[in-house]
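ok, trying the design again with the full structure, not the truncated one.
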């Protein structure tokens, strides 16, 4: 069993591990938070909806390679130690994020722009694949017996706090320089700032000591000679890897990315909320719900990990469709009657060139103020060539909606509920994974199922859900069947096969 450390030592371990992990999540999630703007920079201006889908695909690519990062860096972590391995992942993540902020736009270098960004996203994914397992293992191996859920739950807050930080930096940057400048070049600011955060974290991590359990193994000459072989060729351990994936992390992953990333994408791209409004809703929800990571982590020490995680999955399964239907109902302006319109601005016309062609886009904009308190921008567009319309069809969109206070706080409450589901599935899971595997192969064994569940099943939620909703005959809610289906499968497997309490590993 691990010996209890002084409270001050444990707090330093948590603080140093959490800060680096938070910054890595911040780096990783800036891209997703700015997907719409980045899509307009990486692809031709007339790409339309395909630019967003392609950008989300690049975003998803970083998740797909996370399991490979888990194998590479997990093996290093079990061979050379936890500290040096996740120090390396931090440098790779920070460097890639900084370079994304320097990539020229499509107008300057064509399709080389999205290709270069894709390569850097792959490096980010590999780095993140090695970060989480190291940080969670490091904290767990310092935590006293019976309090692993509580202490490792602080690491769990870093993913959401990293998203919170990325949203905050984005909103502040946009408000300081203005919407036009932010869409043009200001979106690079959050990427470039990350290098300062990484520098601070690297300095702190250099002062950290190796995990006492790993140091003990190394001193005794018991470090795994081949962690990959021991993790996946032994039937008993491989069974635990599969159980962790299909009974826990797969469902946890889709709940995480639906409640925080798909929710933001849905509000902005489907409900057409104003950029800042959608971010403010998520920021408030994260602020309200984040403490519950620690609450549910601590409760898992008392009552077990299993049912807290499964109840979080069940919440998403049962309530996602009613929640998102409410989003649609409260932002629908297609059926507004004249009596509900208080004021309409004079129409303003803007001519926007389409790439290097002779065609232009004519946009006629009017602002509508409704009796409900909602304000929205109505935009009508058609294509011009030499000043003449070349298409009789008109695309009418309702965008940049702002909400009355009552609806705004209702949306905050609905997103907070989704983030509470996230805290239930995510708060206990680090302790759950650590306790499944022996110390000598823990980094490798726990990292792979975690990053397949989160990186593949969870990270693909925004892309797959948006893609499904774009199919002919689909409704705006059709995309939700993907996370609901995955969560339901994981719930059934977990309910049948998971133990509510994991025994303390004999090597601890």
């Amino acid at each position: 069993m691990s010996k209890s450390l002084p409270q001050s030592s444990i707090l330093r371990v948590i603080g140093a591990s959490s800060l680096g992990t938070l910054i890595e999540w911040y780096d990783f999630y800036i891209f997703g938070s700015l997907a719409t703007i980045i899509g307009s920079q990486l692809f031709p201006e007339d790409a339309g909806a395909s630019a967003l889908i392609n950008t989300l695909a690049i975003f998803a690519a970083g998740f797909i390679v996370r399991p490979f990062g888990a194998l590479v860096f997990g093996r290093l972590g079990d061979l050379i130690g936890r500290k040096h391995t996740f120090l390396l992942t931090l440098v790779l993540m920070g460097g890639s994020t900084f370079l994304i902020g320097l990539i020229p736009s499509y107008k300057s270098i064509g399709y080389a722009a999205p290709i270069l960004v894709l390569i850097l996203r792959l490096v980010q994914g590999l780095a993140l694949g090695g970060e989480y397992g190291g940080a969670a293992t490091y904290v767990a191996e310092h935590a006293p017996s019976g309090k692993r859920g509580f202490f490792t739950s602080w690491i769990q807050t870093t993913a959401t706090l990293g998203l919170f930080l990325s949203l905050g930096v984005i909103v502040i940057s946009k408000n300081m320089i203005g919407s036009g400048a932010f869409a043009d070049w200001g979106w690079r600011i959050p990427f470039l700032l990350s290098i300062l955060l990484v520098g601070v974290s690297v300095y702190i991590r250099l002062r950290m000591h190796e995990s006492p359990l790993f140091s003990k193994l190394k001193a005794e000459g018991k470090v795994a000679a081949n962690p990959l072989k021991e993790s996946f060729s032994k039937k008993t351990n491989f069974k635990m890897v599969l159980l962790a994936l299909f009974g826990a992390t797969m469902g946890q992953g889709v709940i995480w990315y639906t409640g925080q990333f798909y929710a933001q994408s849905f509000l902005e791209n489907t409900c057409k909320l104003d950029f800042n409004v959608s971010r403010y809703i998520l920021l408030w929800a994260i602020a309200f719900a984040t403490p519950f990571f620690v609450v549910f982590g601590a409760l898992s020490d008392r009552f077990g990990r299993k049912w807290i995680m499964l109840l979080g999955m069940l919440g998403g399964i049962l309530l996602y469709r009613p929640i998102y239907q409410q989003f649609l109902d409260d932002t629908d302006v297609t059926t507004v009657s004249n009596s509900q319109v208080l004021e309409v601005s004079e129409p303003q016309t803007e001519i926007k060139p389409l790439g290097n062609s002779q065609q232009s886009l004519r946009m006629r904009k009017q602002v509508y103020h409704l009796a409900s308190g909602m304000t929205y921008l109505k935009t009508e567009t058609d294509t011009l060539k030499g000043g003449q319309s070349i298409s009789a069809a008109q695309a009418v969109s309702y965008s940049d909606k702002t909400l009355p206070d009552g609806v705004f706080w209702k949306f905050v409450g609905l997103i907070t509920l989704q983030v509470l589901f996230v805290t239930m599935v995510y708060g206990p899971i680090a302790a759950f994974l650590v306790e499944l595997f022996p110390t000598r192969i823990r980094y490798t064994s726990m990292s792979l199922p975690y990053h397949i569940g989160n990186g593949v099943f969870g990270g693909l939620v925004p892309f797959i859900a948006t893609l499904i909703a774009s199919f002919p005959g689909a409704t705006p809610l059709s995309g939700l069947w993907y996370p609901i289906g995955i969560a339901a499968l994981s719930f059934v497997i977990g309910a049948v096969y998971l133990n509510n309490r994991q025994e303390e590993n004999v090597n601890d």
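Keeping the full-length input from now on. The radius of gyration is 24 Å.
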